[in-house]
Here is the input.
Amino acid sequence: MMAHLTWSRGGEAELVELDGDRVRLRSTASAAPGARVEGALRSTGTAIRVKVARCRLIGSPAPADPAPAERVYELEGRLIDATREVRAELARLVAGERPG
Here is the structure.
């Protein structure tokens, strides 16, 4: 996983999809639906806030699976208070471009 942002409460996430204000992330930290999570982009330090709509563990856990800190979750949600510039920056990350 290539982390694009770091969560303020620990963990990191990769931005996988952006559609307007809707986002899908792969995260090392889980979040309950309805939760508001905050973080910052690793490249620029820009603050990011997301209201989580869905969170699920990727794959099916078994007793021999990695420890919780090594598990990866898929978060779907909505950006909160994101400016046009922030959405453009996130779109560049999804497209694989380096920040400029």
The radius of gyration is 13 Å. Strands lie at 5-7, 12-19, 22-27, 36-41, 47-57, 73-79.
